[in-house]
Amino acid sequence: MSEPLFLKPVFHEKLWGGRKLETEFGYDIPDGTIGECWAISGHPHGKEQVVNGEFAGQILADLWNDHKELFGNPKGKVFPLLTKILDANASLSVQVHPDNEYAEKHEHELGKTECWYVIDAEPGSYLIYGHNAKNKAELDQMIESGDWDHLLRKVPVKKGEFYYVPSGTVHALNKGIMVLETQQSSDTTYRLYDYDRVDKTTGKKRDLHIKQSEDTITVPHKDPKLDIQFKEVGKNKFTTFVQPPISPFFSVYHWEIKEPAQLHHQIGKYTLISVLSGEGKITADGKDYDLKKGTHLIVPATIDEWTLSGDLDIIASESGEN
């Protein structure tokens, strides 16, 4: 019998983190300023274990290598996606991520295109999203002179919004924002600006990566044109935020479940599911599994169809690379 793969999150302390992963999601998190919940991860920096069934205790990365049938016999060397919940209790550094080509050459891992679904945002919250430089020369000059007020684009943000962040995009979450992030499985970040903050462990300012940032920033910035699609089936609402070809690496969906819904894989061969709120069940191969806020799982390729029931708010994703 095929079963969904339920995963145990891994948590990371961050200079900008807080405690909302505990207070809002009920996670048993370590002491300190915890900024990231790595919810579904095969990356070496977030070695997640399966907690149920035949593969209980096994690492997702090992399943990818040893049980290709669970993922539709993919060709890629690594599990390609990474799902996180981020709690920005303070502003993150202004940063940029490289594309696959640059990351492979310089970092020996995947590039990093990502996206955010805004779980919550305090009044007045904003993102850094893009920049105002018209060309490379102007970009370099504004960075060198530290003209951040004119260079960086500030975008007001609200709960329930979605932002697609291709590699090469200058960006930052700021204070008071919580998001679910879907991204390529990469941990490469180039810091462009960090508000001159001092790391409490080292007592020094955190490293910046100006050359790498200048190498990888897309100039001029252009907001991606998304084809967001909505569908209502009975009391259920299904939103497709992004999918290939606009997003070559993943598709991301928002499912609002109020009555039983039969679902199947769409563009991919397996599906990642994160429950943002509510309670319910997933039924697969005639067996029920409980779902609640903060649950994360993969529906493997060995399950063709499944049913969601209850009152559930879900972000799901699929890899665009099979």
From TrEMBL:
Domain (Phosphomannose isomerase type I catalytic) ranges: 6-106
Chain ranges of the Mannose-6-phosphate isomerase cupin domain: 245-317
Details of cofactor binding: Binds 1 zinc ion per subunit.
Binding sites annotated in the UniProt record for Zn(2+): H97, E114, H171
Cofactor(s) needed for function: Zn(2+)
Record keywords: Isomerase, Metal-binding, Zinc
Gene Ontology BP term (one): carbohydrate metabolic process
Molecular function GO terms recorded: mannose-6-phosphate isomerase activity; zinc ion binding
Catalytic activity from the UniProt record: D-mannose 6-phosphate = D-fructose 6-phosphate
Documented EC number(s): 5.3.1.8
Location of the active site: R191
Isomerase among keywords: yes
The family this protein is said to belong to: Belongs to the mannose-6-phosphate isomerase type 1 family.
PANTHER family: FRUCTOKINASE (PTHR42742:SF3), TRANSCRIPTIONAL REPRESSOR MPRA (PTHR42742)
The protein's name: Mannose-6-phosphate isomerase
Species per Swiss-Prot/TrEMBL record: Companilactobacillus futsaii
Lineage: Bacteria, Bacillati, Bacillota, Bacilli, Lactobacillales
